[in-house]
Specification:
11 strands; elongated; alpha+beta
Length: 338
């Protein structure tokens, strides 16, 4: 009598002159397929990176909170064991892939997704009827697994924070920030929505990520409704823009953005975050006059040469970015505005 097997619908392909498979696997099978552990081995003897368990709850909750729209990309795994591929009568590349339950299967890419799926199934067993695709490589002795992991991650590039915010239509703060700046066209055109570092020839002064951080500071612990938060954020950044003469000069084409980025502190991420932080205090302290208090920004010398910034923010004409300089920027702006 043959040993028990897992059998999945699969497609066979050729890569690097070797056969590999893409199988559709029910989620309930994922914890059963991948049980091989090597976490206690030395890194050079391991086949995959150590699982970062702190990431799992967030990924699990993403599945559970978005049951009708979550997206998980394919897992990639190696199989050490005898497998059989039974072709469909009409195609030599489509069929059923059978894997002995005694085979070792190792995830080369996606172990955190696997762990999140397992955790989500415990909270919502109905997920067992859903599927995820797995790219499977036959690898006797798991000899290629380390190289497969290295090759899969060789060219991986994480999206920038700004791009994540731009494309994120689930997160309420990301949506709010995009809606708020869309109401201020002159300000919006100064925002780079894609890059971490703004290209030299760009008209942009700020990254979307820095505006996001500033808005989070502005609305931190807010009890306002979403609509009220949107209105406040829009009014705040409009008022700030109307009092930042350098920004307006760039928007009107009278000054190059590269000059402002190089010679001043006004467009820096620590400045945007500090503006949001101090703005929150300003609005709470002067609910009817905070607009007027921001007029002091017009008379602030943002140039790096200003001795005001030489007490820890600008050193040798270079801005030091750290928690300490962020705190110092908040302190200085508080003295100016409050």
């Amino acid at each position: 009598m043959g040993s028990a097997k897992f059998t999945f619908p699969a497609v066979k392909g050729i890569q690097a002159k070797m056969e590999y498979y893409i199988a559709m696997v029910p989620l309930e099978c994922i914890p059963k397929l991948f049980t091989f552990k090597d976490d206690n081995m030395a890194p050079e003897l391991r086949f995959q990176r150590t699982l970062n368990k702190a990431r799992i709850p967030e990924m699990r909750d993403y599945i559970l909170s978005n049951p009708d729209s979550y997206v998980f990309s394919a897992l990639t795994a190696s199989i050490d064991g005898e497998i059989t591929f039974t072709t469909h009568q009409d195609s030599s590349d489509i069929g059923l892939l059978s894997i002995p339950m005694t085979a070792k299967m190792l995830i080369n890419d996606g172990q955190h997704r696997r762990a999140a799926i397992e955790a989500a199934l415990k909270r919502n067993p109905a997920l067992k009827y859903e599927h995820i695709s797995i790219v499977l490589y036959h690898d006797i002795g798991l000899k290629r697994s380390q190289q497969i992991f290295s090759d899969l991650n060789r060219f991986a590039i994480r999206p920038t924070k700004s791009l994540n915010i731009l494309y994120d239509n689930r997160d309420n703060m990301s949506i709010l920030v995009k809606d708020a700046i869309s109401r201020i066209p002159s300000f919006e055109k100064l925002i780079d929505k894609e890059h971490t570092s703004i290209p030299n020839r760009s008209i942009a002064l700020f990254t979307l990520s820095s505006i996001h951080k500033g808005t989070m500071e502005l609305l931190k612990d807010s009890t306002l409704s979403t609509k009220e938060q949107l209105e406040l954020a829009s009014r705040f950044w409009t008022t700030v823009y109307n009092n930042m003469l350098d920004w307006q000069a760039v928007a009107s084409g009278n000054t190059k953005s590269s000059v402002i980025r190089k010679e001043t502190l006004s467009p820096l991420s620590i400045t945007m975050r500090a503006l949001g932080h101090v703005g929150r205090i300003l609005i709470a302290s002067y609910p009817n006059q905070w607009h007027n208090r921001l007029e002091a920004l017009q008379f602030t010398d943002w140039n790096k040469t200003n001795p005001l910034w030489h007490n820890g923010i600008v050193v040798n004409n270079s801005v030091q970015l750290s928690h300490a300089t962020q705190a110092l920027m908040i302190k200085i702006l508080s003295e100016i505005l409050l």
